[in-house]
Amino acid sequence: MRAARYYGNKDIRIEEIDEPTAGAGEVLIDVAFCGICGTDLHEYLDGPIFCPTPDTPTSWTGETAPVTLGHEFSGVVAALGEGITDLEVGDTVVVEPYILKDGTDTGPDSTDYHLSEGMNFIGLGGGGGGLAEKLAVRRRWVHKIDPSIPLDQAALIEPLAVAYHGVQRSGAKAGDIAVIGGAGPIGLLTGAVLRALGVTVVISELSSLRRQKALDSGAADHALDPAAVDVAQEVHDLTGGKGADIAFEATSVQAVLDTLMDALRPTGVLLNISIWGHRSDFDMHKLVMKEIDLRGSIGYVNNHPAVIELVESGKIDLAPFITGRIQLEDLIDKGFDTLIHRNETAVKILVSPSGKGVDPA
């Protein structure tokens, strides 16, 4: 089968590899669509980070480079390993793509397995990946979805779970006013979750195309251009001088973080959902004087069932966030290059390893 294999910095190759089989307790999945994540771009440009080197594994799989990429994917059950009786061949599924140390408590009451020692992701640290025609995954990480959900939209359930967990960490509730810094995929999906909960959303974004996408997709009530207006002042005006209840940093840009701090009301919550590759020059005095509650968020933990319910119930429509469907061989030219050099034109580009369901050339 074909797969996108990560060898190292700016070295991803489409290769033929052996098809996997489903071992005991595993599910073999025919991949339908796999999204390109910002983390994949970081690995391509600046990595390896989560990915291993040819000499050093980074996950409990013990694999070294090359590894198959892709952790935002949907598909159809192709085969079931020994011991699995609660799924059937033909079921449509998504995957919670964790690689954890054996023995980690991943039960329904766990709130911290995503923070366990050596946590990594399928499609980054090994374990196969969604940028291949098939992969085998432990039953624990496979989530069945209703067949009424199109498989291209289902591929966005993983990043939507990232947004959902961030919102959960923030403590947002109906009637709150939230400001989001950045209308990239996670910023937009965070807005979608917030609005589904009854929160008023203000997004700050430099790109006019992304501001319009925030409004058209229903991810925001207001979209502000930080180059044209004082975002903090606009937020204070919208809230009768009070300031936002919650702010979400989704850019890893210092100026955005500073703006969000100014836009928050005293005792507000600042939730960082972006990955920073550098240290922040954070204004601790302002945090103290406003008694701001600063929180971080990574991944998801037992969030997929609630996220899937949001999509199946129609409370969140993922279709507007899909801006391209490409074939595996076009991964770099039409996928990575677009997201690196023309990212204002794209939100989520999906890859079809089989070549089915791609957009016309």
Automatic annotation (TrEMBL):
Gene3D superfamilies: Medium-chain alcohol dehydrogenases, catalytic domain, NAD(P)-binding Rossmann-like Domain. SUPFAM superfamilies: GroES-like (SSF50129), NAD(P)-binding Rossmann-fold domains (SSF51735). Residues 8-351 form the Enoyl reductase (ER) domain. It comes from the Bacteria. Its cofactor is Zn(2+). Keywords: Metal-binding, Oxidoreductase, Zinc. Belongs to the zinc-containing alcohol dehydrogenase family. PANTHER family: GALACTITOL 1-PHOSPHATE 5-DEHYDROGENASE (PTHR43161:SF26), SORBITOL DEHYDROGENASE (PTHR43161). This is 2,3-butanediol dehydrogenase. It comes from Brachybacterium tyrofermentans.
